[in-house]
Amino acid sequence: MSADLFAKLGAYLHDVFVMNFDGWVILGFVAQGLFTMRFVVQWIASERARKSVVPAAFWFFSVGGGLLLLVYALYRRDPVFIAGQALGLLVYVRNIYFIAIYGRQTSASE
Questions:
Q1: How far apart are CA 56 and CA 54, in angstroms?
Q2: Is 32 in contact with 65 (CB distance < 8 Å)?
């Protein structure tokens, strides 16, 4: 790789991660962190059970992360991101509703 390519890459990364850094970027990273935690809790629960398990915390992290990501997407005015997060929130809230009404289940057969 040439020095010019490294310079362009460095300038790009500086622009993206330093020059554009503001409160909205912090919100975006917090939201993405919450959204990522849903996979962490699902992975840990499945490892402990030695089978695929979706704990209730998965859906709560989904709502928290999805809602904050929707706010971030609205601010960024990204229609693809807005549609994806808004539709996802319907699924997450519906699953929390089912948990509240019918109790927690670890599989469809229970």
A1: 7
A2: yes
Q: Among residues 60, 43, 40, which one has the least CA distance to residue 51? A: 43
Nearest to 32 by CA among 70, 78, 83: 70
Provide the residue type at 3 as one letter. Answer: A
The per-residue pLDDT for range 22-60, each reduced to its tens digit, is 998 899 899 999 989 999 999 999 999 999 889 999 999
Is 89 in contact with 63 (CB distance < 8 Å)?
yes
Handedness of CA 110, 96, 73, 53 (dihedral sign): negative
CB atoms within 10 A of CB 109: 5
pTM of the model: 0.77
Distance of alpha carbon 57 from alpha carbon 43, whole angstroms: 12
